[in-house]
Amino acid sequence: MHPDLIPDNPYLLLTPGPLSTTKTVRAALLRDWCTWDSDYNQIVQSIRTELATLAGTLEDITCTLMQGSGTFSVESVISSCLPEDGTLLVLCNGAYGERIVKIAMANRINVIAQDSGELMPPDLDQLRMNLKAEGSITHVAVVHCETTTGMLNPIREIGKVVKEFGKTFIVDAMSSFGGIPIDMQEIEANVLISSANKCIQGVPGFGFILADLETMQTAQGRARSLSLNLYDQWDAMEKGRGKWRFTSPTHVVRAFAQALTELKKEGLEHRAERYRTNHRVLVDGMRNLGFETLLPDYLQSPFITSFLSPDKVGYSFPVFYEAVKRQGFVLYPGKVTQAETFRIGNIGDVYPEDMERLVQVISKVVSF
User: Fold this and answer.
1) pLDDT band (50, 70, 90) for residue 366
2) Closest Cα partner for 15 from 326, 325, 360, 259?
3) Judging by beta carbons within 10 Å of its beta carbon (0-12, 13-18, 19+), is residue 27 exposed, middle or buried?
4) Residue 127 near residue 142 (C-beta atoms within 8 A)
5) Apex 21 CA angle, 24 and 363, nearest 5
6) What angle do CA 316, 95, 110 make, to 5 degrees?
7) Residue 82's CB: how many other CB atoms inside 10 A?
8) With left for phi above 0 and alpha for psi between -120 and 50, is residue 222 left, alpha or beta?
9) CB 256 within 8 Å of CB 196
């Protein structure tokens, strides 16, 4: 089917993923593929190579695709990389850092949560203290963009501290990879995790793990799960040149290949600037309407923004949500525990003029 025949979406998804995709990405879903066919496996191999290139200058980087949501990929890493006698230190400041802690606990992995609260970045001095005090710590994990609030955590600074102590550094870059340049060597990350349906603008169905070769090889025999065994998945893809161990989401993979092509055409720097512009237009417009952001600007990512709910009689997020949705925009409910908020995503096939229209819609829905 020609992309022009693909129907338009009834609304824009202003969420951190799934997000609004292009017609050409959606059109790529319309062809069937065989998981064992060499043409399909070549697509998988091309994706693995492109993602490794996108992750920067690390020479021995390898890429593994994993079925499921982004959380499946995170659990694959945590449950496969930690040795039996290892300890995971998680730098938490939101729901997704807390989820990593829960994953470790569910897999009976020793875990320490360094929780800085939802409104503050991780404390580097506390990180050093924990690494000095707890000799059993082998791995440190952090969420880059904590979409609970929209905070962008300082992964470069964290990585330097982690490497001072010779630990393995795991970065959950679910909502940031492909949206801003990230060089795994510069941030000193051993593992980076993301998903198809975030800044690369694909559709949901799989995530991916980028890791240096040594980290991947040392994961052999450590997995606590069959289906989420990271080493075995990587080994199968290496030996089978793009084959998956179990049935892969073929349509989603092909759509992702198209999304990667479109990212390459737009250019990562240009996409990052588009997202930043989306964010600036949104925040400036909302502040002009009287809304306040949850976070100060210096902690804010360009991917999703939390706004304080209006302090006015009769305001209800469900009512507000439906009113805005009828005008063509889907927002995201708040997730922080300390304040009533809602969130607006700036990523996907979304442009500054869309943010201008959104602000106009909100100005009619909520008046101060």
Assistant:
1) confident
2) 325
3) middle
4) no
5) 135
6) 160
7) 25
8) alpha
9) yes
Q: Are 110 and 224 in contact (CB under 8 A)?
A: no
Strand 206-212 relative to strand 61-67: parallel, antiparallel, unpaired? antiparallel
What distances in angstroms separate CA 129 from CA 123, 132, 136, 168, 171, one per listed residue?
A: 10, 5, 13, 17, 20
Tell me the C-alpha distance between 161 and 269, whole Å. Answer: 28
Alpha-carbon distance values, 334 to 87, 317, 340, 361 (Å): 32, 9, 7, 19
**Burial category of 45 from C-beta neighbours within 10 Å (exposed 0-12, middle 13-18, buried 19 and up):** middle
Q: What is the pLDDT of residues 130-156, one digit of tens each?
A: 999 999 999 999 999 999 999 999 999
Q: Tell me, what DSSP letter sits at residue 192?
A: E
**What pLDDT score does 368 carry?**
56
Over 60: is that where the pLDDT of 325 sits? yes
Tokens 């506390």, residue?
A: 126
Residue type for position 165:
F
Omega into 18 within 30° of 0, i.e. cis?
yes
Q: Are 282 and 346 in contact (CB under 8 A)?
A: yes
- Could you report how far apart the first and last alpha carbons of the chain are, in Å? 47
pLDDT of residue 315: 86
Which of 279, 206, 228 lies closest to 18 in space, CA to CA? 206
Amino acid sitting at position 176: S
pTM for the model stands at 0.95
Half-sphere exposure of 73 (CA within 13 A, CB side): 29
Residue type, 322: E
Q: What does the chain come to in residues? A: 368
Which H or E run includes 25? Answer: helix 23-27
**Nearest Cα to Cα of residue 135 among 100, 105, 103, 165:** 165
Q: 359 near 286, Cβ under 8 Å?
A: yes
